[in-house]
Amino acid sequence: MNRPAQTLLAAPAIGERSAQENPTDQDPQRPPKKSSGSPAASIRALLIALSLSVVTPSSVLAVSAVWLLNPGSGDWNPGTNWSTSPVAPVTAGDTATFNISTVTSLTLSGSVTIGSITFQPGASAFTINTNGQNLAVEGIGIVNNSGKAQAITNNGAAFQAGITGITIVAAGSTQFLNASTAGSATITNYGGAFSGGSGGSTQFLNASTAASATITNYGGDVFGARSGLTEFLGTSTAGNATITNNGGASGAEGGSTFFFDRSDGGTARAITNGNGSFDISGLTTAGMGIGSIEGSGNYFLGSKMLSVGGNNLSTTVSGVIQDGGASGGTGGSLTKVGTGTLTLTGTNTYSGGTTISAGTLQLGNGGTTGSIAGNVTDNAILAFSRSDAFTFGGVISGTGSVQQIGTGTAVLTANNTYTGGTTISAGTLQLGAGGTTGSIVANVTDNAALIFDHSNAITFPGVISGTGSVTQAGTGTLILTGDNTYTGGTTIAAGSTLQLGVG
Question: Which residues are registered as beta bridge partners of 137?
Answer without folding.
Answer: 114, 176
